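Hi V.,

Quick status before I head out on leave. The structure for the redesign project is tokenized and pasted below; the design run finished overnight.
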């Protein structure tokens, strides 16, 4: 029985108290090391357990093809037996490979100072796994692209948007090697998701002693009030804040500001509630994910 102990999708794991965890998704992509490192950094900063998840996707392709009629009956049975054995061997190898990745990631996290580290493997669609685990997640960490993208630096992971839209937990999307954040940018527009991001920055130990660059992109008549309100909450939390009003294209302005101010991590609300508008206009979240060179912490 796995760490969560309530279904057969989790094929191995180890026990952990029911305290919410920082969950890092390990898949063998070239972002795996950074995903582990950022998860370890968050867990150590906020004093939470770190859970390392290796999810083995179920495939819709049958393990053994239907070869009826294409070969002789006796030969067919022999070949089907061989194909079945090969598929079983492949499954065992994937499990073993995952165990080795998790073991290496656990050692890495322990070396980074995380006291509680748990590992688990699950056989399931990643989105379904994360939805099932959502109540146990404090922060989710995953790479911007999965193993199927190889070394490519283009595009987004096939399930990333679905994960972000499906979960109502903070999600850190990793797109580069680990750098301990010293400066964060809070992209703030006064909306509901942005206020959640503001509350997290103001109230979490994660951002203590880290400089915050508070940024609003939009109409000048709205900027002063929005920045003043958010700035007051950050100041009350003792966070050193630099407030800036930017104009122009939201994504272009934010990405340029990141570069100019050597920002290590950006915090912002994720997607709007209007899915149709996002599809027609293109969401700021998706464009930021595609254009930013720094990890993005998203809240819905």
């Amino acid at each position: 029985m796995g760490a969560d102990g309530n279904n057969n999708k989790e094929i191995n794991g180890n026990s952990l108290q029911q305290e919410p965890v920082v969950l890092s998704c390990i898949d063998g992509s070239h972002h795996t090391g950074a995903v582990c490192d950022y998860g370890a950094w968050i867990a150590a900063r906020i004093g939470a357990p770190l859970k390392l998840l290796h999810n083995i996707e179920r495939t819709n392709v049958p393990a053994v093809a239907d070869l009826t009629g294409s070969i002789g009956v006796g030969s067919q049975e022999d070949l089907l037996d061989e194909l079945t054995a090969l598929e079983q061997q492949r499954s065992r190898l994937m499990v073993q490979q995952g165990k080795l990745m998790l073991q290496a990631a656990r050692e890495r996290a322990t070396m980074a100072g995380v006291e509680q580290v748990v590992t688990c493997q699950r056989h399931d669609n990643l989105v379904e796994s994360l939805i099932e685990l959502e109540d146990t997640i404090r922060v989710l960490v995953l790479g911007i692209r999965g193993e199927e993208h190889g070394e490519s630096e283009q595009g987004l992971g096939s399930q990333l948007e679905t994960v972000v839209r499906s979960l109502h937990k903070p999600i850190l999307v990793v797109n580069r090697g680990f750098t301990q954040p010293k400066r964060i940018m809070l992209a703030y527009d006064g909306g509901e998701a942005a206020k959640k991001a503001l509350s997290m920055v103001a109230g979490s130990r994660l951002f203590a002693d880290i400089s915050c660059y508070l940024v609003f992109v939009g109409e000048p008549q709205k900027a002063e009030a929005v920045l003043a309100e958010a700035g007051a909450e950050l100041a009350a939390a003792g966070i050193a804040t630099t407030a800036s009003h930017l104009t122009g294209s939201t994504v272009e302005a934010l990405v340029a500001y990141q570069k100019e101010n050597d920002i290590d991590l950006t915090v912002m609300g994720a997607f709007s509630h209007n899915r149709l508008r996002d599809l027609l206009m293109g969401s700021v979240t998706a464009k930021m994910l595609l254009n930013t060179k720094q990890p993005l912490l998203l809240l819905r």
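Above is the designed sequence. The first strand starts at residue 10 and ends at 13.

G. will cover questions while I'm gone.

Best,
W.
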